[in-house]
């Protein structure tokens, strides 16, 4: 890191404290929660067809 001044360090410490306090769940508990996949518009291909925000085409290199 470059030389930081006191306000930058305080902001960094606040960010790390926030991340530390964030409640996380174990993967072993969240992976079995696949019951909602049929209703999820981002995971179900049939529902993705009706979603206007899903990209329709492939990437094109110019």
From TrEMBL:
A GO CC term assigned to this protein in UniProt: heterotrimeric G-protein complex
Which residue numbers delimit the G protein gamma domain?
A: 3-62
Q: In terms of domain of life, where is this protein from?
A: Eukaryota
Q: Which gene encodes it?
A: Gng13
What does the record give under GO molecular function? G-protein beta-subunit binding
Spell out the coiled coil positions from the record.
none
Which GO biological process entries does UniProt record here?
phospholipase C-activating G protein-coupled receptor signaling pathway; sensory perception of taste
Designated name of the protein: GBG13 protein
């Amino acid at each position: 890191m470059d030389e930081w001044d006191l306000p930058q360090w305080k902001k960094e410490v606040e960010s790390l404290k926030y991340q530390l306090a964030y409640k996380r769940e174990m993967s072993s508990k969240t992976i079995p929660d696949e019951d909602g996949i049929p209703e999820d518009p981002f995971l179900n291909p049939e529902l993705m067809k009706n979603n206007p925000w899903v990209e329709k085409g492939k990437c094109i290199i110019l």
